Amino acid sequence: MHQKPAIIKRFIRQLFDLKSTQEEENKTFLEIKEGIEFKGKNLWLLAFAIFIACIGLNINSKSAVIGAMILSPVMGPIFGIGFSLGISNSDLFKTSLKNALRIVLVSVFFSTLYYLINPYSIETEELISFSKPTFFDVLLAFIGGLAAMLAISRESGTQVIIAVAVATSCIPPLCTAGFGLATLNLEYFLGGLYTYSINSLFIGFGTLLMTKYLKFERHSAQNIKHVNGWFFILGILALVPAVYFAYVLAVQNMFQSKVEYIINNQIEAKYHVINYDINSKLKTIELDISTPTFDAKIEQNINAFFVRNNIKNIDVTIHQSIEENLDLGKEIKKLQLEIMELKKTK
């Protein structure tokens, strides 16, 4: 009987074992060291990736943005920062940090250049979405860092690293920052830099924890605890705005869902709603309603639906269309088409 728990414990340990498939530590170290170098080929690849991402954001093309994220070499120095802290290698940490900052400067320069010379640079949904990260983006970055470090320590982890680069979206925020600089929009510039910074920070934090978990050998007897401490404090401070943005997003989504429910299940039961538009950020609701005859109390009645459901401080705009006028308009249009057909036969 006593052997059963031991067998189960051994089975679980073997099932989740990571050390047996891990490559030599020195090989992992050399791979990461090579990846943090930012010059020559990597510099050109970054420039191309930035231009591709800017074009993708400009035309709302997700495939172009994804391609740019796969092409870009920005992940190397970020992994280097987390890994160097995990093995207490101050030289590797300094080199990684220097190259990470260089990537930011180069990326913002090329993205700003693109938006300055491009006459069709406009604010698109894709572009704006990378200016306000939420707590969910932080989770993606952190889990991505764990997965990436796990993949790097294996023989063939390239596919996982590419997937992490796409999932964590490090390139697009730098394009948003470049757009903000080109258009002198401080909100987009700071928002893009903040999104990139928090993604990088938590990718590095995930990499650090996985390095510790895999028990990589320390390269220095002197642990750089003060750097690890500042790294942790910086992560907590960076997390505060992301949590706030996540809260705001949740409130807006709840407002959107509640208003849609009221329109589809309550207002539709009494009125024929042709179309509606909800702005959850500004709390404005626009309704196109068709009625058999003019209803002078329609605005009062519609607002009563929202008040009963405890939705207050909203701005409701109602466009009332009379069905008789709609039918008359259809008849006029039909006659116009018949007249055009008669003219053609002549």
Could you please describe the fold and organization of this structure?
This protein is mainly α and 346 residues long. The protein folds into two domains: 23-223, Up-down Bundle (Glycerol uptake facilitator protein); 254-345, Alpha-Beta Plaits (2-Layer Sandwich). The protein is built from 14 helices and three strands. It has a three-stranded mixed sheet with strand order 1-2-3. The longest helix is centred in the last third of the chain and has 46 residues, at 225-270. The protein starts with a helix and ends with a helix. The mean pLDDT is 80. The chain crosses the membrane at residues 43-59, 65-88, 100-122, 134-153, 160-182, 188-209, 230-250. Pfam families: DUF389 (PF04087).
What are the defining features of this structure?
346 residues; Alpha-Beta Plaits; 2 domains; Glycerol uptake facilitator protein; mainly alpha; single chain
Question: What strand order characterises the main sheet?
Answer: 1-2-3
Helix content: over 70%
CATH topology of the largest domain: Glycerol uptake facilitator protein
Strand content: 5-15%
The ordered H/E elements are: HHHHHHHHHHHHEEHEH
User: Helical segment tally?
Assistant: 14
Q: How many discrete domains?
A: 2
CA gyration radius, whole angstroms? 28 Å
Q: Which spans of ≥5 residues are poorly predicted at pLDDT below 50? A: none
Mean pLDDT: 80
Largest pleated sheet: 3 strands, mixed
Structural class: mainly alpha
Number of strands: 3
User: What's the N-to-C terminus distance?
Assistant: 101 Å
Assign the CATH architecture of the largest domain: Up-down Bundle
Molecular shape: elongated
Which CATH class of the largest domain?
Mainly Alpha
